Amino acid sequence: MTIDHATVRIARPCTDLAAAERFYVHGLGLAELFRKPDLLMAGPRGASWHLELVAGDLRPTPTEEDLLVLYLGEPVDPALVERLTEHGGTVVSQGEYWDRWGVTVQDPDGYRLVLSTRSWSNSA
């Protein structure tokens, strides 16, 4: 068995599924891949990862280190950051390293999304 080509699902609880949808789908631009009344799966179409947001009794308890890092490999488009803030996000500092290499936006539940200017190959 090998995990070299595994598909990744990141599952997170959320307090307000509509707010999470506004942030990740309308703000970030992810596609809605699947939906039920209490669940939203969003991600880039055809990618090997997606984000599962689940509304329910479990409350989010994010820390400053609960990061979803997207390695863009190019400068972060200010219009993207503006869209994220218009859709419920808040720009925050994530420390010297991440502030140097991108922009961090906190989602409506307090989880942090880092838009990194680096590419995965030069991130170490």
From TrEMBL:
Instruction: Please give the CDD domains that the UniProt record associates with this protein.
Output: VOC
Q: What sequence ranges are listed for the domain VOC?
A: 2-118
| Coiled coil regions, renumbered to chain | none
Q: What is this protein called?
A: Glyoxalase
Q: Which organism is it from?
A: Actinoplanes awajinensis subsp. mycoplanecinus
